[in-house]
Fold this sequence. Notes:
By secondary structure, this protein is α/β, with parallel strands linked by helices. The chain is 34% helix and 17% strand. The chain has 2 domains: 4-76, no CATH class; 85-384, Rossmann fold (3-Layer(aba) Sandwich), CATH 3.40.50. Helix 10 links the parallel strand 9 and strand 10. Helix 5 (171-194) packs across helix 6 (208-219), helix 6 crosses helix 9 (284-290) and helix 9 (284-290) packs across helix 10 (308-324). The longest helix has 24 residues, at 171-194. The protein is globular and about 55 Å long. One 2-acetamido-2-deoxy-beta-D-glucopyranose binds at residues 241, 244-245, 248, 309, 378.
Amino acid sequence: MNPKFLHTALGLFALLLPESSLAQSCSTIPSEYSFSGSSLLLPDPFTFLNGTKVVTKDAWACRRDEILALFQAYELGPLPPAVETVSATVSSNRLNIVVSANGKTLSFAPSIRLPSGTGPFPAIIALGGASVPIPSNVALTILNNEEIAATDPRGKGKFFDFFGRDQKTGGLLAWAWAVSRIMDALEKLGPAATKINPERVGVTGCSRNGKGAFVSGAFDSRIRLTLPQEAGSGGMGCWRIVAEMKKNGTKVEDASQIVNGDQWFSTDFSKYVNDLSKLPLDHHFLAGLVAPRGLLVIENSGIDYLGPVSTYGCASAGRLIYTALSSERHMGFAQAAHGSSHCQLPASLRADVTTYIDWWLLDKTTPASIFKTDKTYNFHLGRWVHWTVPNLV
Ligand SMILES: *[C@@H]1O[C@H](CO)[C@@H](O)[C@H](O)[C@H]1NC(C)=O
Ligand SMILES: *[C@@H]1O[C@H](CO)[C@@H](O)[C@H](O)[C@H]1NC(C)=O
């Protein structure tokens, strides 16, 4: 819907409805809005675009909608409106999904590997494949995300064949859209058909697919556990901290570089990559979108390109949103090096991944909090965060 129209429509509703009915109506960005912040300060998650402070959990739900809208407008591109119909069938090792709208169809068939037994089992959706250990009592479904939206060139893939090649949407949100259609299919078919419990689903992926897994968990609240692995910049890395690392001489992938070649972001993101002071979000907000659901960020301290300080620092800021929601332990951060190899989980982090899967998907005991790195950083959160953390009630 045209944002201006929605804005006007909401104004009308606001006159007719009591405030409590507006929970779903907070996501519009005023058409005249422009942000002017600092490239050295992480934006405040707890202030609405109109300047009002977020002080309750209900208001946070509303601010979360606003942040979802900001990610679409500034960085990821628009998520298509949910007007299409989704039908699904399950065969022995495939979930066959058909999305249709306006006489067009999009079909894709993620693989399914089920544990033996009758279920229902929890499941992990892996973008491209899983490079964390999946317990034998958890189902694994693999999405061929590059077939949905190619990293390169822009506009290639089933998402664009279906919605049109001129979409501003980048790959990350197109992949997340497909993950949500898997969730639709799992819910629609139900555990009797799929042997999968749609209320115990996690999502993972590594590197670019880790960025996609993170965005999937951020946008779809039905996902109970988000496990982004070595996603670096565009995942847990805050663009502003990345930019400072780059300035300091680290060979980290920064915003201005990431928009060249790899088509993961909105075409509009390029307007902000060279002036981050105009970007009303940073990636601590991405963690905040997942909150208070389970999130374990798995990072690699041994690869400069992934921006180890930025992922650590940005996770520290993102966790403050969990703190505000009295769920600090729900977000874990586990960072270690494994020589110079990428997407090979270091032995020292295996137990952390298992702990989060046990906790969120298998309903085992709540563990102690995990927030660790094998490096020592000279990182001062107070330098980047000039907002206070409310205790949302
Ligand atoms: C600011 O926006 C929020 C979310 O839409 C709303 O709840 C609040 O009432 C607004 N504040 C003002 C002063 O308009
Ligand atoms: C960049 O270098 C300055 C000066 O040494 C230091 O204070 C700062 O923490 C560094 N920034 C990052 C993100 O590593």
